[in-house]
Every structure is written in C-alpha cells, then in structure tokens.
C-alpha cells in the first residue's frame, strides 16, 4: 500500500494554489513536496467551497482535500481535482520550473498518469 498522495489546500488565498505531495522520493520537504502556484481566481473560489478532508503533511491542521490527479497528455499536463460536488481542471505550464518540479516529483512517486493522446477533457469535439 502506497502512501504517495497529492493534496490541495482549500484556503490558501485568492489566486494561490498550495499543493502538498507525500512520497518515498522526496523533493523539497521531509514528507515529499510542497509549493504555491499562482492560479486563476476561479480555481481558488471553487476550492474555497470545498470542506477540508485531510490534514496537512506538515502539521495536524485540517486544510486539504485529495481527489487530485496529475495527467500528462501529448499536448498538456492537466491537474484535475474531483469531489462529490464537481471537478476543476487546470492545465499546467510545463515549461515553468515550479510545474516541472511538480511533474518530476509526481513521476518519481507514481502519481503521474501518462496518456499517449491529446487532452480532450472528456468532451466531444
């Protein structure tokens, strides 16, 4: 059973995504990985409506949700967050050093799903 996971803080601030990763292969934290990203306000508004379900890897505070999937396609890397009330998808800038570090951490800890096809978001084109 793997303890590898990615979780997202529901209340990091307007336009701020705080993400934590737990894994055997660590990056910039003892437990694995943590970073803040600048994201559209729509995403932080969506997150602010979520009830936290998981404790921080760094403390015992209940600030996070899981249900996070990182998927690499031919044309993008998508960060998908799903819960019982909905889904939010953010396409990462894989050229950004912060995003590249997240992708590297996820790849080393079997947290990156790789698809040999373009992203279609589950929508018919």
Relative helix content? 10-25%
Name the structural class.
Answer: alpha+beta
Q: What is the alpha-carbon Rg in Å?
A: 14 Å
Low-pLDDT stretches: none
* Percentage beta strand: 35-45%
Count of spatially separate domains: 1
- Average pLDDT value? 93
Tally of alpha and pi helices: 2
The biggest sheet amounts to: 5 strands, antiparallel
| Largest beta sheet: strand ordering | 3-2-1-5-4
The separation of the N and C termini measures: 38 Å
Taken from the alpha-carbon principal axes, the silhouette is globular
* Structure summary, number of beta strands: 9
Topology of helices and strands:
Blueprint: E1 5-9, E2 16-22, E3 32-38, H1 41-48, E4 54-55, E5 62-65, E6 68-72, E7 77-83, E8 86-92, H2 97-108, E9 112-114
Parallel strand pairs: 6-9
Antiparallel strand pairs: 1-2, 1-5, 2-3, 4-5, 6-7, 7-8
Describe the structure.
- The protein is α+β, with helices and mostly antiparallel strands and 125 residues long.
- It has one domain (5-114).
- 16% of the residues lie in helices and 38% in strands.
- The protein has 2 helices and 9 strands; from the N terminus they run E-E-E-H-E-E-E-E-E-H-E.
- The chain has helices at residues 41-48, 97-108; strands at 5-9, 16-22, 32-38, 54-55, 62-65, 68-72, 77-83, 86-92, 112-114.
- The strands form 2 sheets. Strands 3-2-1-5-4 form a 5-stranded antiparallel sheet. Strands 8-7-6-9 form a 4-stranded mixed sheet, with helices on one face.
- Strand 1 and strand 2 (16-22) form a beta hairpin.
- The radius of gyration is 14 Å and the shape is globular.
- The termini are far apart.
- 20% of the residues are buried.
